[in-house]
Design brief:
Elements: H1 9-39, E1 53-58, H2 59-69, E2 72-74, E3 84-88, E4 98-105, E5 115-116, E6 123-124, E7 130-131, E8 136-138, E9 144-147, E10 152-156
Antiparallel strand pairs: 1-10, 2-3, 3-4, 4-8, 5-6, 6-7, 9-10
């Protein structure tokens, strides 16, 4: 017995394309389902999906870089549009003087992000104002830099409840 064959030109053109689209739609749904199962549909940031600490590297190398070139703005490391600023207070040794701020002015919301003025320790905000690091919003309790015994700096991005 012969297999049925598509006879019209239209059917020979449309059926393989429709079958391909259907295949990729089913594959996409399958991958989405696997991702949903892995994530357990949690609303909270987890260590598996987003790390709650950020390794910054050697504090002895990082301190002179920040002292010379200015603070580092780290974009949204904790998954809720919260940008942070890592500052090292000039004149302090690499073991001291590390401060973490939120990257918006203390008197504005997080929608008003700041940018570092190159090679300085000042910022400009969404309104064009010039700000010092101590005029930025403070991080929630529990977040901050951690000085490790091995000479590295780690940022703890988990606020206390």
């Amino acid at each position: 017995m012969r297999r049925p064959q598509l006879r019209s030109t239209f059917a020979r053109a449309v059926v393989p394309v429709a079958a391909g689209i259907g295949f990729f739609a089913i594959l996409g749904l399958l991958l989405w389902g696997v991702a949903a199962v892995i994530a357990h549909n949690g609303d909270q940031t987890s260590q598996r999906l987003t790390p709650t600490v950020q390794e910054m590297g050697s504090r002895a190398r990082l301190a002179p870089t920040i002292d010379k070139q200015g603070p580092i703005v780290l974009q949204d490391l904790i998954g809720n549009d919260t940008h942070v600023v890592l500052e090292h207070e000039a004149g302090q040794d690499p073991d001291n003087g590390w401060v973490l701020y939120l990257a918006h002015p203390a008197d504005r919301t997080a929608a008003c992000n700041v940018q570092v003025v190159k090679n300085t320790h000042t910022f400009t905000d969404c309104e064009g104002r010039t700000l010092r690091p101590d005029q930025l919003a403070t991080v929630p309790k529990g977040m901050g830099p951690i000085i490790n015994a091995d000479g590295t700096l780690t940022l703890d991005l988990t606020p206390n409840p």
